[in-house]
Structure formats: structure tokens, C-alpha cells
Amino acid sequence: MTLHSKPIMIRTIMSSLVLSVGLLGCGKEQPPAKVEAPAPQPLIIKIGSASPLTGPQAHIGIDIRNGVQLAIEDLNAAGIMIGDQKATFELVAEDDEANPTKATTVAQKLVDAKVAAVVGHFNSGASIPASKIYADAGIPQISPGSTNPDYTLKGYPTTFRVVAHDGQQGPTLARFAINTLKSRSIAVIDDSTAYGQGLADNFEATAKELGAKIVAHEHTTDKDTDFKAILTKIKGKKPDLIFFGGIDPQAGPMIKQMQDLRIKARFMGGDGVQTPNFIKLGGAASEGAMASIPGLPKDKMPGGNEFLAKFKTRFNQDVELFAPMGYDAVQVLVAAMKRAGSADPAKYLPELKNTQHQGVIGPIAFDEKGDLKNAPITIYVVKAGQWEPLEVIQPEPVAAAAESSPAPAAPGATAPTAVKK
Amino acid sequence: MTGLRYASWSRQLLIISALIVAPFAIEMLLGRSWLRITDVALLYVMLALGLNIVVGFAGLLDLGYIAFFAVGAYSYALLASPQLAIHAPVLVIIPVGAALAALFGIALGAPTLRLRGDYLAIVTLGFGEIIRVLLNNLNRPINITNGPQGITRIDPLHISQFSFGHSHSLGGITFTPLHQYYLIFLAFVLITILISVRLEHSRIGRAWRAIRDDELAAQAMGIHTRNLKLLAFAMGASFGGVAGCLFASFQGFISPESFQLIDSVMILCMVVLGGIGHIGGVILGALLLTILPETLRYIGPLQQQIFGTVYIDPADLRMLLFGLALVLMMLLRPRGLWPKRQLTGQLTNRGG
Amino acid sequence: MDIFVQQLINGLVLGSIYALVALGYTMVYGILGLINFAHGDVTMIGALVSATLIQLLHAAGLPVPVSLLLAGGGAVIVCASLGFSIERIAYRPLRNAPRLAPLITAIGVSILIQYSAALIWGKQYIALPAIITPPSIEFAGAQINHLQIAIVILAACIMGGLIWFIHHSRMGRAMRATEQNPAVASLMGVDTHAVIAMTFLLGSAIGAIAGLMVILYYGIGHYFMGFMLGLKAFTAAVLGGIGNVGGAVIGGLLLGIIESLAAGYIEQLSGGLFGSNYRDIFAFLVLILVLLLRPQGLLGQRSGDRA
């Protein structure tokens, strides 16, 4: 490492760059599609999808991508006219590896590919840093699964989500647990992720306010399958309800182990638990478990059950979690394009704010931050191995009142519980 | 350092101007995403060089190096964001981040001095996990790190009024934030290289090499192994800390999921794959392992074009090829892609 | 008290599984001085293969014990051949390479196994429907079911058998000789290549059984599950003194029990400052503490540098 090493190092840098140029040549063949093609030829509109397609959360990311893909195939089959041109939609799916750094790279890649909109990302840790890149490029981003309240607090006009954030679902579930189920002593478990912990903390805060006793707040991780230790501890506290903030790969084995340990408490979760997979993983033990999902019961919604069936036929697997959100995100975007008569982000972005869409997940409208407006939340219960709607909870009067008053007050109604903790 | 004597000024100038023009060329030829990848690659070069001090020079196997990156990143984030409502100047934060990381390096090194190679590996691995779990849980009872939600709205690098988060024009050329971060990262990389080269050939570097090759003999020669090992940990960690500060300012958001075991392992891979202990090799390794996975993203469309259909999920194919590449490269070049020349002595080592 | 007994039982079952996986790490390390990063993924393959076989055989109408036995046998065969091939392809060519080189191939192989599994089984979580509902008995106020008892007994048998094998069989003696000094062992007529291959075969086969236990006990499998399991098992192996088979057993059991008790009691012990969120680092803290007092692990022997 003496004399000539430095130039050589630099030569190496250069040659590896040249190498990548060479390799890239192969990939860069399709020219960036013009978003506003001049005259009659079919308009090609690229929709980006960004989610983890590899790594431990790949099953969720693939689910989202499949939802987006299904929406695009549906729209192409239906033959959508944007302005006076027939539009063809194209999916550009990228893998953000649930890694914040990769997420920004992927975001830039989608921007470079001139996508008209992005559905993504899943992890709040990916959505938040990526949102700046989409905002700088003026491209609308709809996250199907990021529940961190911070995601929409940066004031970007391009940032939206079609999932209830932590401040919306948790309190509703707590009110249901205490007012309807009459739970008095509750144990809370979270999976130490942004989603699970946010949900559990918000649940806990409201439950405490309503006078319930939180006998334990335990933590696990999103990679664990053994919960016997924390469940045993909880058993000693004799709660009448266990609330879990997390998703089904943990919730399924957890409810099984509750049964093994002869824990009599009822089990409740958020939308991460309200999946077919939970019942599969939990088996007979899942009977009687409750979970919420924003929106009206699927059978009351046009296209709800139909969507689940269609998804199953197309991909030969059940909806995992966020596919309906991915599907609706595309529908919302394209509806805005149709109303604006253009797929140019600058032109249809204002229309996106006026969204009033009846989606698979329920009515979709955005508040001024880009969050889902408080919509009804349905609580489901597992009966005979199926999720059956138990109760529809309308948005709480406080939030509704705040929303009907001058618009800017609305965020104050929902956000504080989430932010202050 | 004798090396610079031979390289003429004009040649240096050429290289430096090439490095300055590079981001524009990359952006024009490959698109802005590749400029971002280059920026990230520079950060990894810094990390790999830092780890190389610990693993390559001193021979201490560290599987938790990402922890120091995390310490730096969180130092910056806590001192320049609304999280604690502090907005300290960068020129204060970066030294603080480096010093804090060095402190953590010593904290890791001190109790582990007696441990041999692989025991050290697992303890450092555990240390890395401890830091990550702490960051993930220091939101209760008092909220310091904001837990898994991460810290957002972190200030971009800025020196008085000049912010790297905004575009600036100079002589008709617009420097976007990506260009500016490229330049600042490049400057830090060059400083890191300079320090690494000088360290390697200093008394300290020779002492490290002695410890690496035979600790007992080194001790017998009167080398103060304890202090020197701690110094290696502290120096390596401080590079990680500075890189972490830069990362936090570049991303504007950090959360514990950026600092996982797999990241530590990847940095170690960069060092070993490139050529352990060899600065040029380590740089090559870092660049290659950052660029290769990104390049493999183009395999998906390629598969479609060649075969007309997608046989293997592109994401899976990418990972399979990456795994295969790691195995093959190591089988073909067990000493690393660009290893240090050995047994040739300093004077005859002119090939570089 | 009943809670404490329950936590001990939880820890014992978890620890038995850790111990079985830890054996694979420790055997390879003992002989090659190599951290076989791909071992967790071999266990994952064992779990997924047995899940598939159990479902197939059960659907074919075979009685449960027979299908379990056959599935276990199938998983052992698949994993043993996988372990054998890994050694042959990724490690043997690097026998004389620098010490860290096999670490990289191990990581490469680990990625290859994971994504091959993703191609075969997909990336969804795989649920094994409950084909048996093991009856549960009450013991000192705690619940324990037959499956848990079976896991602990089977694990104990395997570990006992392995220790016997290493100490009393010809192959075992060759293994110990290779462990102490490969060059001299080779001079004494030990076919070290065969010994090393055997080590991988055995370790992977035991990993397959651990995989079968995991899938039966938790009923859930995933192509990424090997990572966490491997990490825990590796920690257990080091805790017990890596390279020492008895140490892996003690380390595994100890780690399982520490985790259970930590999750159960850390909050009381720390006055509410730490909760179960610190469970994972509690194991590492114990590990660091043990290594500070005994740098060679609990049962490890003090040996010279292996460079």
C-alpha cells in the first residue's frame, strides 16, 4: 500500500462504475414512457409499487404488490379513458427490502422511471424517508400499510395513506373492549415494531382513560414464535382480555399457546390480525378471537367478497393483509386521473385530495394531511373458522365533531394521543 | 508519506476533477437513482475502512460494527431534530458523534480484551444487538429515541446558512442535494483513506500488525497490547460514528431497523471480500457489494426480455445470484478480490 | 410458584430445541474452527420439509405416528445431504484459505438456501394444521403436554447418543483426534475429509430433527425462520463453550431457561425499569458475563490460539 496505490484505487472506483454502466445498458432498454403522449396512441401510465419482496417481511410486501397488480389488470381489462385517450397501466414493482436506505434508492429509481404514482411503502421506516423523494419529484405516494402518525406530518402535498394510523384504530378498539365487552383488567402485548407498538400504546392510553386496569404490557418481536414466557407471566395477572398489537405470524402461534397454557382471557387485535392466515396459524384455538379492520363489513361493501375471491383465483393464495389497501390505492389514483383528465401528477394531484371512493376497504376520503378520514371500523370475531362481523363502530363523536368544524382542527382530534406518548 | 512524492500534481488534479465530475456523469448516463446509490456506496466505503482498522489491522473480529454507525446516527438525530428540540450546529455534532462512538468502542473493547477470536465475534455481535434493542426500547419510561417509530425531520447538513438539503447554483451548474452530499461524503472518504494509510504505516499500525499476527510475541516485544487494542476499537468506532452522523443527515429519518445484525455482517463481507487489511481492496469490496445488488435489480426485466416470461420471481433471482456471487468470488479468490501483497517487504512493493 | 414451574417448563422445552441446533454449530466449530452460518437455514429446511411431508402423508391416510416418523426420516435425509453438499462445495475448497474466507461463503450459502426455499415453499408463513392435539397434564400447577415431554425426551436421547458416539465409537475417536490436531490425526491414518463430512452429516441430521420439533411445536414455518433460531443456538453454543458437545447442551438449556425467566421476572427484578422488551439482550448480557469470568465458556477448554 505505498506508491501507486491511490491512483489504482481510483481506477478501481472508475472501472466498477464503468462495469455498472455496462451492466445497466441491458436493463435500461425500455425508454421512459411519456406520461403525456401527444396524440391518439394509447397512453401508457406507469404505476410504481414499492414494498419488501425479500427478507422476513416479504409475505406482506408481495401481498401489497399483488393487490396493486390485480388493480392494474382490472383497470386494463375495463379499458379506462383518461382525457380522451385509452390508457394502459403498467406495473413497476420494486423491492425496498424493508430497509430505509434501500427504500430511498428504490424511490429515486421509480422517480427516474417516470411513474405517475407510487403505491408504497409498507414499513413506516421506509415510507417516511422515501416521502421526501416523491415530494421533491411531485409524484403522489399512497402508503397501503404505514401507520406511523409522523408519516403525514411533514406537510408534503404528495403524501397519502389508505390505512388507519395508530391514533385511529387503537382508541376505537379500546372503547369497544371496555364499553361493549366490559373488560376490566387487560393485558397488552406488542411486537416492538412501529405498527404493533403504536397500535398497542394507543389502545392502552384510551383503555386507561376509560378506567380499565392494564395489568401487564409485555413485548415480543416480529420474529418470535415462542410467547409462553410472557403469556405465563400474564396468566398470573388474570386479565379478562389480552390485546395484541402486531400481525398474524405472531398472533396465530400466540393464541395457540394461550390455549396450551389454559388462559381463559379473550384475545383481540387490530387489522394485522384480521386475516385468513391468522385462523390457519391459530387453528381451533383462534375461535372467539376478535380483530378490527377499518371500513364496513366486506359483505356489505360492493366488491368486498368478490375481491377476496378474485385475489384467490388470480394468485392462488389468500389475501395476507394489505392487498386490499394496495388495490384501493390504485383505484383511488386512477379515479383522480380520470377526473382530472390527465395522468400528469401535477394535474391530477389536486383531484386526489377530493377523493370520495367506495373501495374494497370501505369509504376512502383523505383529510388535509393525506390521512384516511375517520371511517367506520368493523370488529370481527372468529366463528366456526371464519371471520364474522361482530359490530360496526362509527367514528367517535369527538373526532367527528372536530372534523365538521374548520378542517385544520381535525388532525388535532386524532394525532395527539399518538404523538405525545 | 512517501507515496505522494511520485504522483505528480497534474495527475492528482486530474483524478480529483474526475471525481468531482463523476456525479454529473453518473446522473446523466444512469439516472439520479445511481447518484443516490453512489452516495450510499461512499458511506459504506467509510464504514468498511473503519471496520478494516479493527478487523484488518488489529485482527479483532467484530460482528457488531453497525452499532457504532447507529450511535453516530442517533447522536446526530437527537442533536438536530425536533425529537429533543435541539438543533446543534453540525460542527459540534460530528465530533460529538465520533467521540461518543469511540467511547462505545472502548466500552465494548475493555471487557473483551481477554477473549479470543470467535468469542470476541459473538460478544461484539451481542453488543450490536444490545444497542439495537436499546434504541428500539428507549421510548419508555422516558421517550429518548422514539422507539421503533424512529426519529424524523432530522436537519440536513448545514454550515451556518448553507444547507446541503437545498440545491445551489455555482457558475451556471446546479448542485442538487445529492451532488452536494456526494462531495461532502467524498471529502470524508478521502480523509478516512488518508488516516488509514498513515495509521497503517505508523508505529501504531505496525504494533497492531504484531498483535494480529501473534499477540503473545507482541506482548513479549514490549507492545502494550491492551491500550493498542482499545485504540483500534476506538478508532474504528469513531469512523463508524462519523459515517452515522452523515447518514442521519442524508436520510432525514432513522429508525432501529437500519442497524441490524445483517448490516454488520455485510460490512464485514465488504472487508473480507475485497481483501482484508488492504485499503484498496476494502474500498473495492464496499463499492462492489453496494453496487452489485442494485445492478442485479435489472435481472428481472432482463429475464422477461430473454425468455419472454418470468420463471423466477425477480426479487428471489436477485438474492440467489447475490448469494452465488459471494460463494463463487470467495472460492475463486480466497484471499479477497484484491488482497494485500505479502512477503514482499515494503521496499519492493511497487506494484500496488 | 406454579408460575415459576411453568416458566421452567417453557424454558426447558425451548432450551431443548436450542440445544439440538447448537450441537450443529459446536460440532463444526470444534473440528473446523468455523462458524457455519448456514446451519440455521439447514434447520429451516428440516422444518419445511417435514411440514410438507407430514401434510402429504397425513392426507394419504397414514396413521399419525407413522407419518411423523417418515416425515422426520425424510427431513433427516434431505438435511444430511444438504449439510454434506455445503461442506463439499463451500467449505472444503477453502480448507487452507484465510480464516474469514469460509465466513463469506457461509453467508452466501445461507442466502442461497433461503431463497431456494422461497422458490419452493413461497414466502408466506406456512401453517401446519394440528393433526394431533397432544393431551395435556397438570404438574405442580403448571401445564405440560405430551408433545413437550416428547421433545425434551427425544432431545435428551439424541444428545446422550451423540456424546456416547463421540466418546465410544471409532468415528467418534477420529472426530476428537481431528479436533485436537488435524495434521497429526491425518498422519495417524485418520481420513480427516471423511471425518469432517461426517460431522456435517450428523450436525445437519440433528438440525433436521430440531426443525421437525419446531414445526410440530409451533405449527408455523417460514423461509426466514432459520436466521433467528440459528442466532439463538449459536449464542447457546458459545455460552456452553463452543466446540464442546456437552457445553452446547448445557448452553441451550440454560439459554432457554434464562429467556423464559427473564421475560417473566425481569420487570420485578429491575423495579419496572426493564420489561420483556429486554429479553433478547438479557441472554447476551448473561453470555458476556459468563465469558468475562470464563473466557472459554462454561465447559470449554482453555486452548491455545487457533489463529
List keywords for this structure.
heterotrimer, A: about 425 residues, alpha/beta, Rossmann fold, 2 domains, seven-stranded mixed sheet, six-stranded mixed sheet, about 45% helix, about 20% strand, disordered N terminus, disordered C terminus, C: mainly alpha, ABC transporter involved in vitamin B12 uptake, BtuC, two-stranded antiparallel sheet, 11 helices
Q: What structural category characterises the helix and strand content of chain A?
A: alpha/beta
Through-space gap between termini of chain C = 48 Å
Mean pLDDT of chain A: 84
CATH fold call of the largest domain in chain A: Rossmann fold
CATH architecture call of chain C: Orthogonal Bundle
Extended strand count of chain A: 15
* E-strand count of chain C: 4
Average pLDDT metric of chain C: 90
What does this entry look like structurally?
Chain A has two domains: 43-164 and 321-352, Rossmann fold (3-Layer(aba) Sandwich), CATH 3.40.50; 167-270 and 272-298 and 376-420, Response regulator (Rossmann fold), CATH 3.40.50. The model of chain A is unreliable at 1-34 and 397-421 (pLDDT under 50). Chain A has helices spanning 5-27, 58-78, 100-112, 124-137, 166-180, 194-209, 228-237, 248-260, 276-282, 304-315, 323-340, 345-352, 397-404, 409-420, and strands at residues 43-51, 80-82, 85-95, 117-120, 141-143, 159-161, 185-190, 213-219, 241-245, 266-269, 290-294, 357-359, 362-364, 377-383, 386-393. Chain A starts with a helix and ends with a helix. In chain A, 45% of the residues lie in helices and 19% in strands. In chain A, strands 8-7-9-10-11-14-15 form a seven-stranded mixed beta sheet, with helices on both faces. Chain A has a six-stranded mixed beta sheet with strand order 2-3-1-4-5-6, with helices on both faces. With 421 residues, chain A is an alpha/beta fold. In chain A, strand 14 and strand 15 form a beta hairpin. Chain B is mainly alpha-helical and 352 residues long. Chain B has one domain. Chain B is built from 15 helices and six strands. In chain B, the strands form three sheets. Chain B has a two-stranded antiparallel ribbon with strand order 1-2. In chain B, strands 3-4 form a two-stranded antiparallel ribbon. In chain B, strand 1 and strand 2 (86-87) form a beta hairpin. In chain B, helix 4 runs parallel beside helix 6 (117-137) and helix 5 crosses helix 10. The longest helix of chain B is centred in the last third of the chain and has 27 residues, at 225-251. The two termini of chain B are 15 Å apart. Chain C has a single domain (2-128, 143-293), classed as ABC transporter involved in vitamin B12 uptake, BtuC, CATH 1.10.3470. By secondary structure, chain C is mainly alpha-helical. The N and C termini of chain C lie far apart (48 Å). In chain C, strand 2 and strand 3 (142-145) form a beta hairpin. In chain C, 73% of the residues lie in helices and 4% in strands. The chains are: A alpha/beta (421), B mainly alpha (352), C mainly alpha (307). Chains A and B meet through helix 1, helix 3, helix 4 and helix 6 of A and helix 2, helix 3, helix 7, helix 12 and helix 13 of B.
